[in-house]
Amino acid sequence: MSIPIPLVVLIVILGLAGIGLYCILASRNLIKVIVGLQLLVKGAVLAFMLAAHLTQNENLGQTLGVTIIVADTIVAVVGLALAVQIRLRTGSLDIKTISSLKR
Amino acid sequence: MEFILVGVGILACAVLAFSARRLLISAVWLALTSALVALMLYMLGGAHLAVIELSVGAGLVTVLFVFAINISGEESFDKETILPKPYAWGSLIIAGGLAIFLIVKTLGIVNLPEPVAKTSMINWDARYLDIILQVALIFSGVLGVIGILAPGKESSGKEVQK
Fold it and tell me: What is the architecture of the domain spanning A5-97?
């Protein structure tokens, strides 16, 4: 029995998206949250490439994928800069500790 | 068979990136995930995208992570999560169900434009607004790197206690 390739890639996409989403929701470390975001976006890039592969439109998929990768990298850079500055100013990376909103 | 092997590798590395206790180890597993994703992109026919993913995702982002972790330092946390675990799992199941529903519902009804001969034709002719957006994003990324390098106030912990 052989599993079709699109199904394998789809499982990987949903797995990456699930792990990334859980990491964002459950993690308390700011840098771990950015790691989760990276995993989530890798799933999105794979999804674009799978759709392009299935419709024989690889060039469009690659163009959109490049845009996603650039945007994701910039989000990571800005997020890491915020995390570093928060750590330097408050002494912690814990979301619970640095939250100043009234509960 | 190759797809299954690479797919299992991607998911295993992603789980290890999430569950690693040390941030530096987590960044290394994230880089390995990125490299395997690049391999899968290449196997799907996206050679250009695979190269960019490998150089940016596994290279540049990892360097930035290691740099930021070195500046901010490791910090240990107790096991309590920011969102209670049942809520996190519930959100995950709802999101997964919604994704599968949307995938099944849109099968066969999405019309994509006709394939174009070259990636550069799409990049520079059809989607030139994306290029402008990417330039703007890269500029904001430069500002972000300045944010990493900028000296901050010394940590006192007083703001947190307030």
Answer: Orthogonal Bundle (1.10)
